[in-house]
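A common beginner's mistake is to predict each chain separately and then try to dock the pieces by hand. The better habit, illustrated here, is to supply every component at once so that their relative placement is modeled jointly.
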Amino acid sequence: MSRIASEADLAELRRIAAQVRRLILETIHHAGAGHIGGPLSVTDILTSLYFREMNIDPQRPDDPERDRFILSKGHSAVALYTVMALRGYLPVDELKTFDKYGSRLQAHPDMTLLPGLDMSSGSLGQGISAAVGMALGAKLTGRAFRVYCVIGDGESQEGQVWEAADIASKNRLDNLLVVMDYNKLQQFGWPGEDGNKRRSPVDSPADRWRSFGWHVIEADGHDMGELLEAYAGARRIEGQPTIVIAHTVKGKGVSFMENNYVWHAKVPNAEELRKALEEIGQGVES
Amino acid sequence: MSLELGSPVAMRDVFGEELLELTRKDPRVYALDGDLATSTKLDMVASGNPAKFLQMGIAEQNMLGVAAGMAAIGLQPWVCSFAAFIVKRALDQIFVTIAQPRLDVKMIGAYSGLLTGLTGKTHQGLEDLAIMRTIPNMVVLAPADAADVRKAMEFANRYDGPVYIRLARDPLPSIFDERTHTFTLGKAVQIRDGKDVTLISTGTQTVRSVQAVRMLEERGISVKLLHMPSVKPIDVEAIVAAAEQTGAVVTAEEHTVFGGLGSAVTEVLAEHCPVPVLRVGVKDRNSVSAPNDVLLKEYGIDTEHIVQAVESIIQRKVGAK
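With all components supplied together, the output reads:
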């Protein structure tokens, strides 16, 4: 039971997240391309940010004082578009155009196409630097908005992530919150000790971020209450940036996709889609 | 315009002064340093307007990304490093977070070309024009002297979008009068009119081209000299008109012959007005550290090489008739 949200609020967030997962599965199936494991692992993080944490208004997507969001792990774009659609930034029906020629919903986010999309991304390690620039700019000009950025654990192999971490800490950017979607898998990676499992993309992330001067909060990335508590905890921190290391499951919600790196960017066929939707549906009712 | 050259001024000094002035006049302008401020003269902002100076450390990829974020919330960051490091080290960052979204970031490539103060291969920047020219939305400028640097910077400040400005380290004689000189995006500046051959130069090579034209005129050769401060967009109209008028073109740049000014001019001429062309630039060869005069001579880009290229293309032009 969370102190900052009622059980009904949390249930509502869980209901939305289940709808996001169903739409992600349908969109990827329909597009015949795209990533799926990562979008399913980041769903609860994005849902909790867009529906509860961030100070945003889909009716005023260009409001200069809105909170900013950057999906640094841009290959999970389908999850971002779905959450933004349900939040009212675009028609849900537009998800059917994902990856199509002329669509505002590019395979990787394009900020020039979709109002409310705050930064282009897709090449890993770059979004977090832009987030640092936004947070630094806000500090320099005395503006009160907060900056949110989601990075991947595989993405954290990029050296630029740590360049950004250092500058954020040196500039005491307490208006910046980074969430790591720590799903412990990457596209292919390395075999684990036992041969079946894969090795985690980044070892001891909490220690690494702490050593860079960040405030670190660990949370269950599929528990809405824990996520909201973590965001609230970050708001109380002064003089340093915060990272929430959100422990997640790649492919979350679909048993045959969970923790299976093969589903990083595999398209479900009609039968797999039917089974997956059935499982997501059961998840909501229970 | 006269071929008289004024006293030598270093572009980097003018750059530091002008950027300090811009940070004072324009609340959106910030200076981002990749820890080279004493070389690039960004230290003038650090001492003159410290609130507008941001040290980003020795981490170019992040620096370009931070600039993108600042521009995305309405600021105008000026990122300054050596040309080699901005362009080659942070290229994907420039593509993805600055150029594609057409953000208002100014990129200053200091220490471009061969003459980088005895620093050699890693610090020379001979490919920046070629690389930056391939990026959609990118404006690529290579001013020739102090007045040209100021006018290019004033333009970049007014222009809403990504601009790359190539600068040089060492003092060069002045060509233009600061009181009357202007800059127009995509427009050539005619320094001399002539009828035998057209010489098209950019950046630091424009001074050496002026010197070459003086020597050629003494030998009775009439040269039309066009300076191209704007390498992208390039002045197609002026190039075609000059080629039609003179029937032969030589290009001059302190840059590799692959993909820079010479290539840009040749692309225009191949499509619109094929005439004999010679490109004076650094050939397919790694650079080294050496004194300036040695580098210019050994790499085939000193005034004498420009003169030779003009004389030899006139022979080809005559032979073609």
